[in-house]
Amino acid sequence: MKNAFLTLITVLLIDLSAVAQIHWKPTKATVTFSIRNAGLTVTGTFGGFSGDLIFDPALPEKMQLSASVETATIETGIGLRNNHLKKKDYFDAATYPRIHLRSTRVERQENDAYTGIFDLTIKNTTRAVTIPLNIVQKGMTATFSGQFTLNRLEYKVGKSGLLMGNDVTVQVVVQTQQVTTPVTTR
Questions:
Q1: What distances in angstroms separate CA 99 from CA 4, 93, 109, 122, one per listed residue?
Q2: Domain limits of the chain?
Q3: Is the distance from CB of 122 to CB of 157 less than 8 angstroms?
Q4: CA torsion, points 37, 38, 43, 45, in degrees to nearest 10?
Q5: Which residues contact 34 (CB under 8 A, 6 or more apart)?
Q6: Going by C-beta distance under 8 Å and a sequence separation of 6 or more, which residues neighbour residue 166?
Q7: Residue 135 — very low, low, confident or very high, per pLDDT cuts 50/70/90?
Q8: Distance between CA 80 and CA 56 in Å, rounded?
Q9: What positions belong to coiled-coil segments (predicted)?
């Protein structure tokens, strides 16, 4: 009986260690974007980052990354443009206060490179985006970064026009600190 109990405990511990993931707490994040407008490249940022990053390089298929930013924090360097982009035709910040990104699958490529498939939700429209990821871990810290391009019209952000481009390039860089207790995922 004692041997059976010890065997059961050992199997449970082995099973838990196989799915234990390291939790990373964001300490600093930058979310930037660029788009062509009237022949110029307009850049901006979003603030109010919130994220949950669960990752162990030994088990990339178990990675769970989710993040969001506040739409009302959009900053392009011009106050009138910022206010215009918060209105209903663009981000409708009053109705949709956050933009969400959640991983559905992550695959290791080589070294610190990964490819992630994410659900991106803007204005209650969710579409899959593929993001090449770079994850560099140094001791108890790690930096997660990725860049991708999306078509703003697919998310009902603005209307088609001659002056403003449709493609928006987004870059996300998140610096993190390892939380000492691994979390278990299933």
A1: 50, 10, 27, 5
A2: 21-181
A3: yes
A4: -50
A5: 41, 42, 43, 44, 168, 169
A6: 151, 152, 153, 160
A7: very high
A8: 43
A9: none
Domain covering 21-181, topology: Lipocalin (2.40.128)
Contact between residue 157 and residue 123 where contact means Cβ atoms under 8 Å apart: yes
Type of residue numbered 105: R
**DSSP annotation of 60:** G
What six digits make up the tokens of 129? 């985006």
What is the per-residue pLDDT across 145-184, written as a single tens digit (0 to 9) for each? Answer: 999 999 999 999 999 988 999 999 999 999 999 996 555 5
| Cβ–Cβ under 8 Å, residues 123 and 155 | yes
Beta bridge partners of 178: 24
Q: Which of 8-22, 111-125, 128-142 has the lowest mean pLDDT?
A: 8-22
pLDDT tens digits, one per residue of 88-126: 999 999 999 999 999 999 999 988 899 999 999 999 999
